[in-house]
Specification:
220 residues; Arc Repressor Mutant, subunit A; 18% strand; alpha+beta; 6-stranded antiparallel sheet; SH3 type barrels; binds manganese (II) ion; two-stranded antiparallel ribbon; homodimer; DNA-binding; globular; 8 strands; 8 helices
DNA sequence: TGTGATAATAAGGTTAGCCATAACATTTTT
DNA sequence: AAAAATGTTATGGCTAACCTTATTATCACA
């Protein structure tokens, strides 16, 4: 049917929408930000995607993926996260860099290669950053966790996933041991959008609130 | 120094030149043919590559890689052939399709990933098609074999490499067991550019002369 | 309810790689 | 040496994604 190959740009826009908010709508300006593109360019591209039936844009209300668009996005995420696993587990590439390298490979990966890779890896369910890997049909179980930025002081939590994508942010979190599987406790929350103080691996670290929004945790 | 990333198109032109004739020069029309592009387009691109110091174009005499251009081409070939190994040996993808899939991945592969892949694969020296994999510094030992199309009737030879890249050609050769490592004998050569008759694995097969030019062999 | 912030459009440009068609130059063949 | 084949260049066009600057529409809140 509709299986003409999508451009890298198209795939990245759709993936970005899915990553920013899978269920609700995403402001075009957020998309522009994430993709390092001007608002005007993002608007143009969103119009094109709309014409192809991949997104729905309600002006002033944001963009949403259509069924078709969500399908493509899931598939890109599948390729991306499978490659993340390969790069991390088999090529021993550093955790913080894996996203970036996988983000190039994802666009150069045919369906047959994707599925062969999944078999090779043993059908993993989550990527090194803790996010679920969509199945071939696009389905996946969303994480049920909360943002670290929303947790109350005194709570002990376990990190489920890190949703950042920029290498420098990932590196920053890695250096502070804020990684999937680690346990931590919120020691203090400074007022006025101030940083959190966390106890991680018996050390105290400060973490800005905007960074804490990248971290998904569950109470333990 | 000069390590701005090359476009996919640039990499493909340089690789095509290297594949068509590594040492001598290549007619721009052959390049156009290989890349499925018009002569005019290939000429334009060759001009651009010349301006960047990647090739030298002597009008009516063909294009040659400069030192810089050959460096890039070797590197693309390294990535390509390492991916071929991975796809074939680890993902179990069919021999005839591996070139094509690797040809997409090669452009999406950062140096660190390339080297990690080489380590993972155990620094292989040849790709599944029998061609040498250039080292990180671009060096490699050229095959010393002859074209199957040049072999005299009655000679027994071993296939060293298959230089085709199109999937349908590779599939055709694979079906006839003309694969690296196989031994075969030239039974007959029809006159007037006619087909060869070969004995392969105890069966006789006919092979057109133009296809025989893709096959590199050594006498045994 | 108005005003300032935010979002969208309009208009005009750029670049890389492609295309076709036509003119011109060189090489190869007869 | 002329004709045919092949290669090159000149022109003019196209598309996808980008850009800037200016204008207009809508939303949010004081
Ligand atoms: Mn990407
Ligand atoms: Mn390629
Ligand atoms: Mn315009
Ligand atoms: Mn032009």
């Amino acid at each position: 049917m509709n299986s003409k190959p999508m451009s890298e740009s198209t795939e990245m826009y759709l993936k970005a929408i899915a990553e920013l908010d899978d269920r609700n709508s995403v402001a075009v300006a957020r998309l522009a930000e994430r993709l390092s593109v001007t608002n005007v360019s993002a608007n143009e591209m969103v119009r094109r995607l709309g014409e192809q039936g991949l997104v729905l844009h309600k002006p002033y209300k944001g963009v949403t993926l259509t069924k078709k668009g969500r399908g493509v996005a899931s598939n890109v995420l599948r390729r991306q996260r499978l490659w993340e696993r390969f790069l991390h587990d088999h090529l021993k590439i550093e955790w913080a860099q894996v996203y970036d390298y996988a983000c190039s490979l994802e666009h150069a990966t045919a369906p047959e290669v994707t599925e062969a890779l999944a078999v090779f890896l043993g059908h993993p369910e989550i990527c090194p950053r803790g996010n679920p890997i969509p199945a071939e049909d696009g389905s996946f179980e969303p994480l049920d966790g909360i943002l670290l930025s929303e947790v109350e002081v005194g709570t002990a939590v376990r990190v489920l996933a890190v949703n950042a994508t920029a290498t420098d942010v990932l590196k920053y979190l890695q250096e502070r041991n804020i990684l999937p599987g680690r346990e931590l406790e919120i020691v203090e929350a400074a007022p006025m959008q101030g940083p959190l103080t966390l106890r991680v691996e018996k050390k105290e670290v400060a973490l800005g609130l905007s960074l804490a929004k990248f971290v998904i945790v569950e109470p333990i």
